[in-house]
Design brief:
The protein has 322 residues and is an alpha+beta fold. It contains twelve helices and eleven strands. The strands form two sheets. Strands 1, 2, 3, 7, 8, 9, 10 and 11 form an eight-stranded antiparallel β-sheet that branches. Strands 4-6-5 form a three-stranded antiparallel β-sheet. Strand 8 (259-263) and strand 9 (269-274) form a beta hairpin. The chain is globular and about 60 Å long. The two termini are 34 Å apart.
Length: 322
Amino acid sequence: MTSISPAASPALPVLAEVERSGFTEGHHRGSLVVLAADGRVEYALGDPAAPVFPRSSNKPMQAAAILRAGLDLSGERLALAAASHSGEDFHLDLVRTMLAEHGLKPDDLQTPPDLPLDPVEAEAYLAAGRVREPLTMNCSGKHAAMLAVCVQNGWDTSTYLDPAHPLQELVGQVVAEAAGEPVAAVGTDGCGAPLMAIGLVGLARAFRTFVLAEPGTAERRVADAMRAHPEYVAGTRRPDTWLMREVPGTLSKMGAEAVQAVALADGRAVAFKIDDGSTRALGPVLARALELLGVDAPVASRIGRAPLLGGAAEVGRIRAAF
């Protein structure tokens, strides 16, 4: 008999509705959890305890593991180690620099060849006659940092993505510690790195752990670098950047398959996943989640705007449904 995980259940609540010309033409279901400043669950939808792959929302934990392994990163370099960067020139230049500082080359990256994540950058990249390459893949900053710590520790760089590699075993420990729960499964992320599954409650708890960690700890160093240099975590046209720039003290990181985690400076936190993986609903759901967290800032409306076009005219929108 085939089992169905809670995350695949059709009973998950609707998080967002798709309205076109006054007609509701679709729904996006999922799970969400909001933590109060003291860490208790204040609001929940769906099954936020069920394990999910947080995808790139795990990157702060991966960056903390790199620090714990002994690589001395700070500032823009540390922010880029936790990034899903847009592929803008300043991102790619710093990845090259980080590699060169440890005697590495872009050819050492085991990221799959890709275009810049940002559509504007991708169009410019293609118009310049360039082709997909590992350096341009949005996880190349993380991989550059992983390779650098391997060089520093004398670890094998050819197997740095093996789940049994010392670095990846340390990543698993950091994820479990920050989430306050064991890793439920290990998979392979789109960039090729090992990917640890935890529940959304654990993911929100991990982000809360990072913003409340003692200064100087690996967790706090990552949070501080991301918040100080959000354009290196995402890009100049990305919601994570807007939110961390415009709401001081906020830590925010999206992940593929429509995952998002946010923690405010006082420990309030939210994590959610849209079940069908549609990132078009991320903004409206995030804006509503920010409202539940008590965030009253213009950036929330900017993030939440998701118009639908009919021809060149705006004829509808995607809106939160909770």
